[in-house]
Amino acid sequence: MSFTVIPAIDLREGRVVRLRQGDYGQQTTYDFEPRELARRYAQAGAAWLHVVDLDGARSGGLDNLQVIEAIASDGMKIQAGGGVRGERDLRRLFNAGVSRVVVGSVAIRDPGMVGGWLGKHGAERITVALDTRRVDGRWALPSAGWTELEAQSLDELAPWYAARGAHHLLCTDIDRDGMLAGFNLDLYRHLAAIAPTLAVQASGGVRSTADIAAAREAGAGGVILGRALLEGRFTIEEALAC
């Protein structure tokens, strides 16, 4: 299975930001213009960009769609999400130039509908996002910008989507997100065991290129890189090289 290094841009009110553990009250705003940052990553050799509409994730609307469309117009392959609740949102993102749409809350709350999208649009057009945190001994699945806890668990839904032909699964350990504490390698080994056909994108906590190599060894199919790149802990060129 190929391995993909994917830089991330999180958007709030059109600006590049990062949250700590998904907490909207713990935001860091960076002095980067989103489109210029995307161009920088593309020029360095990144084939894919991950874009999150944080406003949309909480509101259920595509609040930063114009920014996403501007980035996509430069030709980089983008997977983007945040606020996708139905077919209309999916089509708006496809029409904006997004190559793969990331579906999170709706993937947890209405797997039947997302399973239908996989059949209709193909596994290469959809990334299922099952972001998780450990609650009472199970991998729980918070939704709505990680603000609401759902009944379904990761161990139920990851194999369910694999059985329905999903290929791309994004999984963030929420408690490590933005914390620079390293990936939760046990989580990715667990996913490789329960859903081996999924190309899992590891996210949350990367602090060094050694973490990227460790995620690959743990069975991940790629990594999402956010804060560590923004704060210069390593370069995108170094990440791609490893």
Summarize it.
The protein has a single domain, classed as Aldolase class I (TIM Barrel). The chain has helices at residues 34-43, 54-59, 65-72, 87-95, 105-109, 111-121, 154-163, 185-194, 209-217, 227-230, 236-241, and strands at residues 4-12, 15-20, 23-29, 48-53, 77-81, 100-103, 126-129, 133-135, 138-143, 148-153, 168-172, 199-203, 222-225. With 242 residues, it is an alpha/beta fold.
Can you describe what's shown?
Helix content is 36%, strand content 29%. The chain contains eleven helices and 13 strands. It has 242 residues and is α/β, with parallel strands linked by helices. Strands 1-4-5-6-7-11-12-13 form an eight-stranded parallel beta barrel, surrounded by six helices. It has a three-stranded antiparallel β-sheet with strand order 8-9-10. The chain has helices at residues 34-43, 54-59, 65-72, 87-95, 105-109, 111-121, 154-163, 185-194, 209-217, 227-230, 236-241, and strands at residues 4-12, 15-20, 23-29, 48-53, 77-81, 100-103, 126-129, 133-135, 138-143, 148-153, 168-172, 199-203, 222-225. The chain has a single domain (4-241), classed as TIM Barrel. Helix 1 runs parallel beside helix 3 (65-72). It starts with a strand and ends with a helix.
